[in-house]
Design brief:
The protein is about 35% helix and about 20% strand. A hairpin with a 2-residue loop joins strand 4 and strand 5. The chain binds adenosine-5'-triphosphate (ATP).
Length: about 290
């Protein structure tokens, strides 16, 4: 069991307008883990991501990230000497600054986040540009560093946004449906790239997705949430060998997992808070 890196303890989150998004939710994630959050629309998945990013504070309960209270300006109450965790963020619709090149957009976290910020604009500028270029090449955008955002397709912008999320070597990657707006082929290509990057660097990843095949392909754990107010209903370990391939994603065990998740979420949507019966693997039923 890996050391706890993210901990939501008895978290309740009520938005200003009165919506109760999370109600006494617990979640514990180990360092280097790859966790997917799935569940009915509006159940509070993005809310969890925002709490972990420190963009929201819980109404009650605690959110600890890397030994610190998430979003606390000063040191949190847990360990005042613990350094802030470097976080990379990528969302469904990547926002790029139109007046900057793609390379400059990718380099933005290096301008903002320590320890890189101290050297930005000085001796390391060239080194940082090379770091951005290397990532762009890894995601198939070699030669596009000098282009402006409006010269790239949606899929290319999404690749660039992944580079921006990764350029500062984040210990924690928060991904909110980062492949949701892409066509199937591009999406599957980016799954493979994402998996390679995770295997190489092993950041802790929290991925929000509606695509159950995506969750089963990428994650080590899949947490299924109830409908709003969200709680973790089921916590599944995904132990398919890595690296996983697209062919693997059509294997009977894989299809069974996806089908079980689909049924679990269908139950959650209708508020039936009990686990559905296990289904047989598809292959067995076809035979
Ligand atoms: N800023 C806000 N103010 C008020 N209510 C909000 C706010 N953000 C989200 N909500 C509400 O909180 C609930 C949870 O929202 P959240 O975005 O976390 O759900 P989600 O599971 O990520 O949804 P989806 O899968 O549709 O993206 C929803 O009912 C939503 O309408």
């Amino acid at each position: 069991m890996t050391r706890s890196f993210i901990e939501l303890a008895d978290v309740t989150l009520r938005y200003g307008g009165g919506t109760l998004a999370l109600d006494h939710t617990d979640l514990d994630i180990g360092q280097g883990d790859f966790v997917a959050l799935v569940g009915p629309s509006g159940c509070g998945k993005s809310t969890i991501l925002k709490l972990v990013a420190g963009l929201l504070r819980p109404s009650s309960g605690g959110v600890i990230v890397g030994g610190r209270e998430a979003g606390a300006k000063g040191a949190g109450p847990v360990d005042p000497h613990t350094p802030r965790v470097r976080i990379g963020l990528a969302f469904q619709n990547p926002t790029m600054l139109p007046w900057l090149t793609i390379r400059e957009n990718v380099m933005i976290p290096l301008k903002i986040v320590q320890p890189f910020r101290a050297d930005y604009g000085r001796k390391k500028r060239g080194e940082f540009a090379e770091r951005a270029e290397a990532l762009l090449e890894q995601v198939g955008l070699k030669g596009f560093g000098d282009k402006r955002p409006w010269q790239l397709s949606g899929g290319m912008l999404q690749r660039a946004s992944l580079c921006r999320a990764l350029v500062h070597d984040p210990q924690l990657l928060l991904l909110d449906e980062p492949f949701g707006a892409l066509d199937q082929f591009t999406r599957e290509e980016l799954w493979a790239i994402m998996q390679d990057l995770w295997i190489a660097k092993r950041p802790t990843v929290l991925l929000v997705t509606h695509d159950l095949r995506e969750s089963a392909y990428l994650a080590n754990r899949i947490c299924v949430m109830s409908s709003r107010p969200g709680r973790i209903l089921e916590d599944r370990t995904v132990d398919f060998a890595r690296p996983r391939t697209l062919e693997d994603s059509y294997a009977p065990e894989f299809a069974t997992l996806v089908q079980e998740l689909r049924m679990r979420i269908a139950h959650a949507r209708t508020e039936q808070d009990t686990a559905p019966a296990k289904i047989e693997p598809l292959a067995r039923r076809v035979a």
